Amino acid sequence: MDKIAELIEFGYECEYLDFKERQYHKDKSMDLLMDIMAMANSRHNGDKFIIIGVKDRPEGKEIKGIDPKEFIDSSNYVQLVLNNIEPEIQFDYFRYEYKGVVLAVFKICKTENKPYMMRKKFDRLNEGYCLIRKGSMNTVAKRSDYDYMYLNKGQFELRFLDYALHAVHDAQGCASIEVAFANTTELPITIIGGTLYVRNNQGKELSRHHVYGLDKFIGADFKLAVPPKTEIVGHLMVGFESSDPFRLNIDEDGICAEEYVFELLLVDAREKRYSATMNNARVFVIGDFLWKVKEQKGIPHKFRTHR
């Protein structure tokens, strides 16, 4: 399942997602500027989306779609935003087909240069006017919001450096995967927890694994300080159990032909969240993690750990 379909089916309006029933026609230009600006200023660290053609009701979403003949060329929106908001906001506007219905999507990305505000007066929006998305609402930015924006210049990036999760640390009950953390902000960031989710290619969650260390097993008290302007590379240690091979369809040799989707979610001491996703990932298992799989198939297993 791709990201847009996942948002339509399971997403809810929040600081990185908004649903609109109709396109922004010329008489709604002010609304477009307000929504794009607020989304760009939100504290969410990744891409933000406005999906057009979906009515979000309390009882559930209604997929109404838009008339394909009335799809508005993205250049109209780009020019409007470029002329009226500073600094420049990068976004894409594109057509998206979902279950036979045509929708339109704004994808707002690379919003590290906050705050974004009105370059000049437009309709009822005065020069310097600044909105920020909080939850499902657009609100006027306050002093605390500006403080947060300026103190958090730059970003915290997560990257997978290995395509496979290696469940090889059976004595500690852990698996590991090589990752990189890059802190380009002006402040130290302390990671206090996280989870690695493993899903199939249809988006179904198969297993989840809590983060317990970097290069060595720490446990539930794991904390990782990443100083400003620093990159750290290491093997992320995550929990792994002998029941996980069943969930992941791992055979008695510790392999599976299936490929997975990994999503790593981390949280810092200020409760800010960061994420990274990798497709076409694999899982390899050895040792005592396989004893239950072997037992089910009647294969003897000699334990090599104290457990």
Give the overall shape: globular
Strand order of the largest sheet: 12-13-17-15-14-18-19
Described by strand count, sense and barrel closure, the largest sheet is: 7 strands, mixed, barrel
Low-pLDDT regions: none
Helix/strand/pairing class, anyone? Answer: alpha+beta
Helix content: 10-25%
Q: Give helix and strand order, one letter per element, not per position.
A: HEHEEEHEEEEEEHEEEEEEEHEEH
Residues in β-strands, percent: 35-45%
Amino-to-carboxy terminus distance: 39 Å
Q: Kindly state the number of beta strands.
A: 19
Can you give the mean pLDDT? 92
Specify the CATH class of the largest domain. Alpha Beta
The whole-angstrom Rg is: 23 Å
CATH topology of the largest domain: the name is Methyltransferase, Cobalt-precorrin-4 Transmethylase, Domain 2
Specify the CATH homologous superfamily of the largest domain.
Answer: Schlafen, AAA domain
Query: What is the count of helical runs?
Result: 6
Number of domains: 2
CATH architecture of the largest domain: 2-Layer Sandwich
Fold and architecture overview:
With 307 residues, the protein is an alpha+beta fold. The protein has two domains: 3-151, Methyltransferase, Cobalt-precorrin-4 Transmethylase, Domain 2 (2-Layer Sandwich), CATH 3.30.950.30; 156-296, Sandwich (Immunoglobulin-like). Helix content is 17%, strand content 40%. The chain contains six helices and 19 strands. It has helices spanning 3-10, 29-41, 74-84, 143-151, 244-247, 291-296, and strands at residues 17-20, 48-52, 54-57, 60-63, 85-86, 90-98, 101-109, 117-118, 131-134, 137-140, 156-160, 164-169, 174-183, 189-199, 205-214, 224-226, 230-239, 260-268, 273-285. Strands 12-13-17-15-14-18-19 form a seven-stranded mixed β-barrel. 31% of the residues are buried. The mean pLDDT is 92.
